[in-house]
Specification:
By secondary structure, the protein is mostly beta strands. It has two domains: 71-320, Porin (Beta Barrel); 324-382 and 392-522, Porin, CATH 2.40.160. Helix content is 7%, strand content 56%. The chain has four helices and 33 strands. The chain has a 24-stranded antiparallel beta barrel. Strands 6-7 form a two-stranded antiparallel ribbon. Strand 2 and strand 3 (80-89) form a beta hairpin. The longest helix is centred in the first third of the chain and has 25 residues, at 3-27. The radius of gyration is 26 Å and the shape is globular. The protein starts with a helix and ends with a strand. The relative contact order is 0.10.
Length: 560
């Protein structure tokens, strides 16, 4: 496609989004609220101009300018709601799947909400329990969107009893996957259902789910199950500051592209094992103190509506990572953990304590200390003699995949100064998690210092110094972040990363980025220029590869 054609499409998208926004704001006035209903929505525009940069491995982009655009429109009147989302990719930004290239209205729905019945026809997102059996959701930053197209009914016939049933197919870029989903979920809030327990200090809820997928077996060499079912049971108990919840999922035989077994000789064979997942979380909170402990076992829980799908495609369920999600650049950007659905044992403990104002350690403004520890192992498995499955002891631990101990201290020093210091010690199995075959695990120490200085009522400056120290992979890194804020509208930021001790001298590269942003009401505009290193970007244990890039990026978002 020519550059002129791309620019024309971008202009048409912006004109369309502007007309929708302007009209919606006009129709949202008093004249239409009531008789004509209301229109709401949002617009998002992400674009980048790319420069080739051989030093960091950023290739030349033939189109030079790429864009992702989204417009949501929602109409409501009484118990009726209808919505649609326009998406245009001209062409899709680097790091996102090229199968998104193009434009269309993939998401559209109508919903009728009666007193005890909610019916949706068209596109919808849904989650049962923790999501380990079913979660249809969007994570736009990852390019992940697995909504269901079909029909859903939700009912609240009895007090405290909630029922859901759905049927449909999952989104597959601008089409649908082959598999058909059928699902049911029920939950009962015991204290709402039984009047005698209404005022009890102990609050209990119980739930259960069933999800089935159907895909025709067209394999002439193997006998593959066409209907694969999974069931789940969950419970939650709350008493005072104590809360404990648990969920167990069991999935039938489901051989697919992502769970094949490697037998002697390196041959790949289908895996006919069942799938299982168990998650238990316990927490305690009181004034100033919060404690959370959790454990999770997962075995063969890749669940997709198409057995040949890979990467983000057509996932039915969501498998949360039981590790701390770090927001600092070096802590969360270089070696983030991604859930291993074919098998893992994970543990996590988190303790947070606020030292009160006026106490010996809290001082005039108080202080917070948070400590976190997480550890993830593979399963200890033995492949069966016939090579169609494996056995594993429930409590057996395999290789260490990931370990993270971190402690963070935050304290306000004065009316205008606040600081945070953080230390992390990590063990990262780069062979398993990122597929760097044969490389030794990365053992790193990370130190972070952050300071915020409030210059005046509207002006503040924040800086971060970060260092990652390791003898493996690319060795040591340093990072600097400086951000100036002119509240409530403007911010300017500089971010620099430097791999200063890379064993290959030509790869000791500095990655600078400058960012300017403006926010007013629900509108946000951000302009960025600089280098982006290649790496892994994760949200909640789901990750995608981000290629190296150099150029100017523009992001605009608004809602109405």
């Amino acid at each position: 496609m020519s550059r002129a054609a791309i620019l024309v499409r971008i202009l048409l998208f912006l004109v369309f989004a502007g007309i929708v926004s302007a009209n919606a704001q006009e129709t949202g006035t008093t004249d239409t609220k009531g008789k004509w209903g209301e229109i709401h929505g949002s617009v998002q525009f992400d674009a980048q101009y790319y420069n080739p940069d051989s030093a960091i491995g950023a290739p030349a982009v033939p189109e030079e300018f790429l864009m992702n655009g989204y417009t949501n429109i929602i109409y409501t009147k009484g118990k009726f709601t209808a919505g649609l989302r326009y998406e245009g990719y001209y062409n899709v930004l680097q790091g996102f799947d090229k199968r998104y290239d193009g434009q269309g209205l993939p998401y559209r729905y109508v919903t009728f909400d009666a007193d005890f019945l909610n019916i949706t026809v068209g596109s919808f997102y849904e989650q049962f329990g923790s999501g380990m059996i079913l979660r249809a959701y969007e994570e736009r930053g990852l390019g992940l969107d697995n909504f269901i197209d079909g029909a859903r009914v939700k009912s609240h016939i009895l007090g405290g009893v909630y029922l859901k049933a759905l049927v449909g197919k999952q989104r597959f870029y601008f089409g649908h996957g082959d598999g058909l989903l059928r699902a049911f979920d029920g939950e009962i809030a015991i204290n709402e259902t039984f009047k005698a327990l209404k005022d009890s200090k102990t609050r209990v809820s119980l739930g259960g789910s069933f999800v089935s997928k159907y895909q025709k077996d067209e394999n002439t060499d193997l006998e593959l199950p066409e209907n694969v079912g999974a069931w789940a049971a969950r419970a939650n108990v709350l008493y005072g500051g104590f809360n404990i919840s648990g969920e167990y999922v069991r999935k039938g035989q489901d051989p697919q592209a992502t769970n094949q077994l490697t037998v002697l000789g390196g041959d790949q064979r289908p895996n006919y094992n069942i799938g299982e997942a168990a998650l238990v979380t316990a927490s305690y909170t009181q004034k100033g103190l919060g404690v959370v402990v959790a454990a999770k076992r997962m075995d063969n829980m890749n669940f997709r509506s198409n057995r040949d799908a890979t990467l983000f495609d057509l996932n039915i369920n969501y498998l949360p990572a039981l590790t701390k999600q770090h927001t600092y650049l070096l802590a969360g950007g270089l070696y983030p953990y991604a859930t291993q659905p074919n098998g893992e044992w994970a543990f996590q403990a988190d303790v947070s304590y606020n030292f009160a104002k006026g106490s010996k350690l809290g001082g005039k403004y108080g202080m917070n200390i948070t400590a976190n520890y997480s550890r993830v192992h593979g399963l200890d498995t033995t492949i069966n003699k016939n090579g169609t499955g494996y056995s594993s002891e429930f409590f057996g631990l395999g290789d260490l995949f990931f370990q993270d101990f971190n402690i963070e201290v935050s304290k306000k020093l004065s009316k205008n100064h606040k600081f945070t210091v953080k230390y992390l010690n990590m063990h990262f199995n780069i062979d398993v998690v990122q597929g760097h075959a044969g490389e030794e695990p990365v053992k790193s120490n990370i130190i972070i210092a952050e300071m915020t200085h409030k210059i005046s009522k509207k002006h503040a400056i924040r800086w971060e110094l970060q260092g990652l120290f390791t003898k493996q992979d690319h060795r040591d890194w340093a990072a600097l972040v400086v951000e100036y804020t002119w509240s409530p509208h403007v911010f300017v930021a500089f971010v620099g990363q430097y791999n200063y001790s890379n064993p290959e001298k030509e790869k000791r590269i500095f990655y600078p980025t400058v960012q300017v942003g403006y926010t007013k009401d629900a509108t946000r505009v951000t302009l960025q220029y600089g280098r982006q290193r290649a790496g892994i970007f994760c949200v909640g244990g789901v990750c995608r590869n981000v290629p190296a890039s150099n150029g100017v990026a523009l992001s605009i978002s608004t809602s109405f």
